[in-house]
Amino acid sequence: MLRNNLIYLILLSLVFIGCSKYGYVHLNYPQEPLVYLPDDVKSIAVVNRSLTREEDKNRKVLESIITSEVGGSDRLASDECIKGVYDGIQGLHGVNMVIPRKVRMYGTGTRETPDILAWKLVAKICDSTDADALLVLETFDSNTDLLLTTATDQVTSILSGTPQKPALPNDIRMNVLCYWRLYDPDSKSIIDQYQHTFYMMFHTEGSIPPPDALPQTAYAAGQEYIRRFLPSYYTVKRDMYKKAKGPAKHEFRTGFRRTEVANWDGAIDIWSKMIERVKYKTAGRACLNIAVAYEVLGNTDLALEWAKKSYEDYNDRLGREYAKILLRRKSLE
Fold first, then answer.
1. What is the DSSP string of 133-188?
2. Cβ contacts of residue 78 below 8 Å, gap of 6+?
3. CB-based contacts of 102, cutoff 8 Å, min separation 6
4. In a domain, 122, yes or no
5. Beta-strand runs (E) in the chain
6. Can you give the CATH number for the domain in which 243 is found?
7. Which of 110, 140, 191, 197 is most buried, judging by how many CB atoms fall within 10 Å of its CB?
8. Residues 195 and 73 grouped into a single domain
9. Domain hosting residue 247, numbered range
């Protein structure tokens, strides 16, 4: 399964603070997806149900004026949202997305969430595409802060007695609201349902919004949704020593320089060979650095072993704290 195949992503950059004896490394670690697909779902059909029936056209036009929607553009932008999902699914190993011949369906055409699709229809769409599940963009609606900001500024100037010439703002925020449902025809259950609003800022220099502002925002909204099924990453900081005192100081620093070019095995080789013949404090620092190196290389067990050694054998305070961090981490794995 995906959760058993997550691997470490290492950001191989070190950050140093002046002439301090400390350095640190940032590591990116995987975080589980917010939603897991059933194991038997390998293919997903996707359709756009956010469109308006012809008889609802007048209602939609009125709503677009009230919400500052970019008139007449939601139909095309919602397709961009679908494209964002289609492209984003490529990051989910072993799962592909298919587009049915009839990708567009009618829903409410507004922010009002439609009823769940009939399961017979869900099964029919999935069977026609050999898909295991059906993803539906149930609603899609856009608006921009452009008109609202301009109107607010004008009202404020009038109330203050200092009318201003109508002017467009230099920056606008494009907003897209989407509601998704993922149907499982076999179990007749909803795998996921999720509503989110996605924002993007655009610089206008006092002119109209760029023509691709809404399509860009819609596409990014689709990509954001599919990330619910993808592993994400969080960044952690690991302190280490970059220098030591005594006869071995040059050798110790050589090991650290190897880490600067991502030669972690080479650094381990230097530090491990010097432990038995250097001063007590330097040996503790070498053990701590070896522990960090092993975590960077993805071996948490050895990292914990060396972190414990740095504190238990050499009373290094960083080793004690680092061992606690690794113990907590292992308890969550």
1. EEEEEEEEEEEEHHHHHHHHHHHHHHHTT--------SEEEEEEEEEEEEEETTTT
2. 48, 50, 51, 137, 140, 218
3. 47
4. yes
5. 14-16, 22-31, 43-51, 96-98, 104-106, 133-144, 171-184, 189-203, 232-241
6. 1.25.40.10
7. 140
8. yes
9. 2-31+237-332
From first to last of its 333 residues, the chain has per-residue pLDDT tens of 434 443 344 333 444 334 567 888 988 877 888 999 999 999 999 999 987 765 344 444 334 333 434 444 677 788 899 999 999 988 788 899 998 888 778 776 667 788 999 999 999 999 999 999 999 999 998 877 654 444 445 445 555 556 555 555 567 788 899 999 999 999 999 999 999 999 888 877 655 667 788 889 999 999 999 999 988 888 889 999 999 998 999 999 999 999 999 999 999 999 999 998 999 999 999 999 999 999 999 999 999 999 999 999 999 999 999 999 999 888 766
Three-state secondary-structure class, residue 204? coil
**Burial class for 299, CB neighbours closer than 10 Å (0-12, 13-18, 19+):** middle
Contact 186, 122 (CB under 8 A): no
Instruction: Cite the DSSP H helix spans in 42-144.
Output: 57-66, 74-88, 119-129
